[in-house]
Design a protein that fits this description.
This protein has one domain. Helices cover 78% and strands 0% of the residues. It has 3 helices and no strands. Helix 1 crosses helix 2 and helix 2 (17-37) packs antiparallel against helix 3. This is YdcH family protein. InterPro entries: DUF465, DUF465_sf. It comes from Serratia aquatilis.
Length: 74
């Protein structure tokens, strides 16, 4: 996720509580989606759709923070 911000992500995970919380939640959702989809990745349900939408929303929030912090550090 966002390889162009790899260094900034490492920094923010330890210095930005909101970013850290969003990052952890994104990872938790990713694991939960993988579990529900099963080993073949073909499991599909309303719950999976809901979790994927939530994960995408969190990813958008993470990206907003990354863009703002990247501008602030330049």
């Amino acid at each position: 996720m966002f390889p162009e911000y790899r260094d900034l992500i490492s920094q923010l995970k330890s210095s930005h509580p909101r970013f850290q919380s969003l990052f952890e939640k994104h990872n938790q959702l990713d694991h939960e989606i993988s579990r529900l989809e099963g080993p073949s990745g073909t499991g599909y349900s309303d719950q999976v759709v809901r979790l994927k939408k939530e994960k995408l929303h969190i990813k958008d929030e993470i990206h907003k923070i990354l863009k703002a912090e990247n501008v602030a550090t330049k």
